[in-house]
Specification:
Number of helices: 0
Number of strands: 11
Radius of gyration: 13 Å
Distance between the termini: 37 Å
Strand content: over 45%
Helix content: under 10%
């Protein structure tokens, strides 16, 4: 099973990015999918998660109202739309499916 995250990059504060993560080798249909992030010197933290059928989503307080998590089971993918980005959002973002992790994509927000 592989989780391939993409869409990271460098933006100025207030900008937007959309992260994508596609799974291969296993269907995501029955899994809760999540996005985590890890900033230098900090522990990995949950950013957002979405239930298997998209009827429930959870957000960290720090991103609620700015980030939106979504999924497309037909495409075996999960997404994270990030808006109003802040320098403190700078981190490596990882997608998660059960005990499986993607390699991460860097997001850098400059002030």
């Amino acid at each position: 099973v592989q989780l391939q995250a993409s869409g990271g990059g460098s933006v100025q504060a207030g900008g937007s990015l959309r992260l994508s993560c596609e799974a291969s080798g296993r269907s995501v249909n029955t899994y809760r999918l999540g996005w985590f992030r890890q900033a230098p010197g900090k522990e990995r933290e949950l950013v957002a998660a979405i239930s298997w059928n998209s009827d429930a989503a959870h957000y960290a307080d720090s991103v609620r109202g700015r980030f939106i998590v979504s999924r497309d089971n037909a495409k075996n993918s999960v997404y994270l739309q990030m808006s109003s980005l802040k320098p403190e959002d700078t981190a490596v973002y990882y997608c998660n499916m059960g005990t499986m992790w993607g390699r991460g994509t860097q997001v850098t927000v400059s002030s």
